Amino acid sequence: MFRQPPKTVTSSAPTSPEPPEASKADLPTPPSPQSDEARTGSTFDATVEAEKDRWLPWLTLLFVGSGCAALIYEIVWLQMLQLVIGLTSVSLGILLGTFMGGMCLGSLWLPRLISERFHPLRVYAFLELGIAALALGVLLGLPWVSPFYASVGGRGLTGVLVRGLLAAVCLLPPTILMGATLPALARWIDTSRQGISWLGFFYGGNIAGAVVGCLAAGFYLLRVHDVAIATYAGAGLSVAVALAALALAARTRGGSPEPKAHRITTPNSGSRLVYLVIALSGMSALGAEVVWTRLLSLTLGGTVYTFSIILAVFLIGLGLGSTTGSAAARTIRSPERALGICQLLLTAGVAWTALMISHSLPYWPINPAITTSPWYLFQLDFARCLWSVLPAACCWGASFPLALASVAEEGQDPGRVVGTVYAANTVGAILGALIFSLVIVPRFGTQNAQRVLIGLAAVAALVAFARPCRRPQGGSDAALEPRKWTDRITAAAAVLALAGCLAWSISPAPWGLVAYGRYMATWLARLAPGIRAEKDVPQDDTKPDIYCTYLGEGMNGSVAVTQWTSGVKSFCSAGKVQASTEAQDMRLQRMLGHLSALTHKGPESVLVVACGAGITAGAFVVHPTVKRIVICDIEPLVPQRVAPMFAKENYGVVADPRTEVVSDDGRHFLRTTSEQFDIITSDPIDPWVKGCAALNTVEYYELCKAHLKPGGVMSLWIPFYEGNQITAKSVIATFFKVFPNGILCSNDEAGEGYDAVLLGQAGPLRYNIDEIYTRLGRADHARVRDSMRDAGFNSATSLLATYAGRPSDLGEWLRDAQINTDHNLRLQYLAGMWLNSYEGSEILNKILNYRKFPEDLFVGSGARRDLLRIAITGSTKTASSH
DSSP string spanning 238-249? Predict the structure, then answer.
């Protein structure tokens, strides 16, 4: 399997021609058969190689454990650091680039810094121990680094540089060691064809472990525990792998007794082409992951589980492809030609996935609401991901071992071979992740992005076919055989023709997928087939009922604006309606604004986290005391393109001279600004959407509280639909933990639970009913009265009557609530698990069972107070319960 003693050749086949005399002088002189070096080296090599075969499967198992730990670390680190440097695409790009950059550096540096005389298993073991130690260091050290970032981080170029610095400090040390593990253990084997195939199996085992780690982190460690437990689990696994490697090292011999001066270190020109091919393959792989994750999350629902499933399926494909490619590399005559064919098949694989995403999956006759069991939905989502993504992922996985087989030659340092190929693949992956997420998708859309993916695969195939291929001579691999120009031209024309046809066939994702996501199939009969201008939407009862008037693919997500023939407009994101002009939604959006403003004595500065249709922010426009409105939204398209389409309902808030629009996530903005506000209102998208739980943690509420001026008010939207009591309790209890004097106000629909507003103040919360009536009666508040009336609030009493409860009354109901913190982000796992549980009415009824009229909360004249008591409880008795 590895280096074998030379066999006597009796065949009459021609031998390789002798090199010219000038070339002979450049060749290293082999040691004399009688020399001490020859005797020592051959005896050592024969002994070591003889005992390696039986340990190779165990080494593959080591890589399974190493890959499992690596994915646990990756998920934990990205989650922890996103809470510090933000959840924008720029922040995510910095994190991924730093993570993969460290892997690249490690794969390149180890073969150049560590001598071959060290036992590969011991080197590998110490790398794993170092990774475990550094992982614990990130866990314990990040809380100390975060305040530094908060003090110097910000927007613009400076903010980007500081984000990169923090990511480098936290991620480069452990990821450099991670990248070094495969080259380190590669030195256990030789660069023969069969040896290289084992490297592919190691890589496949590493990916298999990554699948386990991805699912373990997403479905158990972080769902049930927190980042600390997940880190301990990863570190424990790394230590176990290291101890196993040390035990194997104690029973085997490895390394070279003397430095191997005969090592070939300079790759030939053909190898450089292979590096380009594998770099292009890595670029298309990570670019596809960016594009397809965005589109599939619309089809499946953007929960944390969806992202785990998509990543797991992608890794499964890589593992299967790597295993297949490794097996083929043992016997295939021309691995470089197989590598080119693999890239050619990849063009068809990308086209297949694009076809499934746009023309198949959204139209499967599936109604997710028919079951509340997450188990059935996970099975369905897993099957849909396999059906669409697996073919292309297998091709990417097979590319790595085939690239190794294409560049490997006898006499090379296997660590350098693996490290260089791995580094080339990683560099391409970094470029793919950054270019596609920050440039191609926002500027050209997902349709053209997938066309670019096909183009990259086609170019990679052309480069692979351009490389001279090996032909067997004399029973061994001989010199590279140049290809004929006619063959090259024919192959290039065929590849370009195929890629062009496949790229032309790519269609955009239907707008209904952006608007209604996983429920698109249930709305098909009512959706217009194309996008129409708002002025062209027919105002009658003819079908279709819903038209799309705007569709945009931004840097952080896709958005749509739809309109019913009845005239109701909706803003859609993450595959569902986020804001609309429908009566119930208008009521909620105006509640958030007017309740907050009337709670404060005279608000002057307001921060609105999440713009949406701008209706909540617009509610502050009509309050005469407000002098500054800051709108912070993670997606620039929303305030730029969506909010102006609702200018009538939001009073033109974006164009108002008092308004400043900030393109950032609200948490990061608050961490990096020293400004304080009279009101902070937060209206993010649903808590089951991955990342939104970060805007509902104790730490986030504390951050908001710290940025409130004395007497400042914070308000928050909470949905009761698409969730159960466990989810609602988590949001409410977490808010009340920071604002123990807060209140809950219900936006119910005909007595049925719908959604609600949480409202808190730094000090005791109290409403003087007479003062509020006096304030609303002033001439300068005429627009406020009109705005409230448009939303169904005819008086201050009807607005205050939405009161539903406070911590002192709901203590018993909230007793078993799970508090959402930065360390566990429990809410996104609870909400994502139970988003098909429509328990809105049950939640509201449970809350109202504890409701009493709060005598100390509402003060004022007897008549107005009694009127409010009747509106809240339906009784004139003091402190009566409902």
Answer: HHHHHHHHHHHH
519, burial (CB in 10 Å: exposed 0-12, middle 13-18, buried 19+) = middle
Instruction: State yes or no: cis peptide before 120, omega within 30 of 0.
Output: no
How is domain 51-259 classified at the CATH fold level? Growth Hormone; Chain: A; (1.20.1250)
- Least-confidence region, from 152-161, 609-618, 725-734: 152-161
Provide the residue ranges of all domains of the chain, joining segments of one domain with +. Answer: 51-259, 267-506, 511-577, 583-873
Summarised one tens digit per residue, pLDDT across range 339-396 is: 989 999 999 999 999 999 999 999 999 888 888 888 888 999 999 999 999 999 999 9
pLDDT of residue 143 exceeding 80, the answer is yes
Of residues 276, 254, 280, 262, the one with CA closest to residue 409: 262
Answer whether 545's CB lies under 8 Å from 329's CB: no
Does domain 583-873 match CATH 3.40.190.10? no
Q: What is the pLDDT of residue 49?
A: 53
* Residue 268: per-residue pLDDT: 56
Distance CA 853, CA 769 (A): 14
- CB proximity list for 551: less than 8 A, separation 6 or greater: 511, 514, 531, 558, 559, 560
The single-letter DSSP state of residue 540 is: S
Tracing tokens 């840097």 back to the chain, one arrives at 555
CA distances from 736 to 680, 732, 740 (A): 16, 6, 5
How far apart are alpha carbons 226 and 220 in whole angstroms? 10
Write out pLDDT tens, residues 6-36: 333 333 334 334 444 443 334 444 444 444 4
Q: Is 625 exposed, middle or buried (0-12, 13-18, 19+ CB in 10 A)?
A: middle
Mean pLDDT of the chain: 84
| Helix/strand/coil for 857 | coil
Residue 718, CA atoms < 13 Å, CB-side half-sphere: 30
* Displacement of CA 76 from its chain's centroid (Å): 12
Contact 335, 224 (CB under 8 A): no
Give the domain 267-506 fold: Growth Hormone; Chain: A; (1.20.1250)
- Contact at 8 Å (CB) between 600 and 577? no
Q: What is the pLDDT of residue 257?
A: 46
- The region of weakest confidence among 101-110, 445-454, 787-796 is 101-110
Bridge partners (DSSP) of residue 2 are none
CA 385 to chain centre: 16
Q: Which amino acid is at 879?
A: A
CB atoms within 10 A of CB 386: 16
Q: CB of 319 within 8 A of CB of 397?
A: yes
Length of the chain: 882
Which residue, 582, 642, 581, is CA-closest to 610? 642
DSSP code for 368: G
The tokens describing 88, both together, are 């924008």
Name the phi and psi angles at 264, rounded to 5: -90, 125
Residue the block writes with tokens 């949001």: 731
Spatial strand order in the sheet of 803-805 = 659-663, 628-633, 605-609, 677-682, 708-719, 752-761, 743-749, 803-805
Give yes or no on whether 51-259 and 583-873 have one common fold. Answer: no
- Give the Cα separation of 199 and 201 in Å (integer): 5
User: Rounded to an integer, what is the distance from CA 711 to the centroid of its chain?
Assistant: 38
Placement of tokens 């808030």 in the chain: 653
Question: Rounded to two decimals, what is the model's pTM?
Answer: 0.86
Spatial distance between the Cα atoms of 326 and 404, rounded to a whole number of angstroms? 9
Which of 503, 560, 506 lies closest to 532 in space, CA to CA? 560
Q: What is the rounded (10 degree) CA torsion for 477, 478, 480, 486?
A: -90
Distance CA 53, CA 199 (A): 13
Sign of the dihedral defined by the CA atoms of residues 756, 644, 608, 86, in that order: positive
Q: Say how far apart CA 426 and CA 417 lie, in whole Å.
A: 14
Both structure tokens of 106: 């490690």
Provide DSSP, 813-839.
TTTTPPPP-TTT-HHHHHHHHSTT-B-
